[in-house]
Design brief:
Elements (H helix, E strand, L loop, with lengths): L8 E3 L7 E2 L4 E2 L4 E8 L4 E2 L4 E11 L4 E2 L4 E3 L13 E3 L4 E2 L4 E3 L2 E2 L4 E2 L4 E2 L4 E2 L4 E2 L4 E2 L4 E2 L3 E4 L4 E5 L2 H27 L8
Parallel strand pairs: 1-4, 2-4, 3-5, 4-6, 5-7, 6-8, 6-9, 7-10, 8-11, 9-12, 10-13, 11-14, 12-15, 13-16, 14-17, 15-18, 16-19
Antiparallel strand pairs: 19-20
């Protein structure tokens, strides 16, 4: 694993070492702790916290976690021995300042900025949680639906145009991560890459 840039923490915890693909962009100020797996072309933006100290966190290929987001998981319990890991699929968009806790985001899910996603939730592929929404424990957003509000509820079906724009966002963040890597290298601040 490459050396962390100033202000970044990549910390083993209880014998679990974060596993970060060499093509991932990890911005300065990020904290990645414990049983975390980050896939190819993922971008983790400035001042995110990804803390897998009580369960595991997986972030699939080309997904992005935008600035200031906190991702955690929930520990095993007597009635739920597996607890709630946080499992994020491929091509997932997570907006700025989101809070993701013990949930599943399937491939191509979209989580808007300032959202809260709580234990036991699932956001299916091609589904979206609107900016500022709170998805309460155990809820599931079906594919191609937009949910919003606090607590979040169904708003409408997503159009083909909206789905295409989400995929453009995925591609844009992969490229933007590469550009930030280059800018940080030129400024001699070297981003962490796995």
């Amino acid at each position: 694993m490459a050396a962390s840039p100033p202000g970044t923490t990549i910390l083993p915890f209880h014998g679990k070492v974060p596993r970060i693909h060499s093509s991932a962009f990890i911005a300065p100020g990020t904290r990645i702790i414990g049983d975390v797996e980050i896939g190819p072309d993922v971008s983790i933006w400035y001042n995110c916290v990804i803390r897998a100290d009580v369960n595991r966190i997986v972030i699939g290929a080309r997904s992005n976690v935008q600035d200031g987001t906190v991702i955690h998981c929930d520990s095993p319990r007597p009635k739920r021995p597996e607890g709630f890991p946080t499992l994020i699929g491929e091509d997932v968009l997570i907006g700025h300042m989101a809070m993701i806790h013990g949930t599943v985001l399937e491939d191509r899910a979209f989580v808007g900025l300032g959202t809260i996603v709580m234990d036991g939730c699932t956001i299916e592929g091609d589904a979206m949680l609107a900016a500022g929404a709170m998805l309460t424990p155990g809820k599931r957003i079906p594919s191609r639906q937009l949910w919003g509000g606090r607590p979040a509820a169904y708003m409408r079906e997503l159009t083909e145009t909206a789905l295409a724009e989400m995929q453009l966002g995925v591609t844009g963040y992969v490229h933007n991560g590469r550009h930030h890597h280059e800018a940080l290298a030129a400024a001699d601040l070297g981003p962490a890459q796995g």
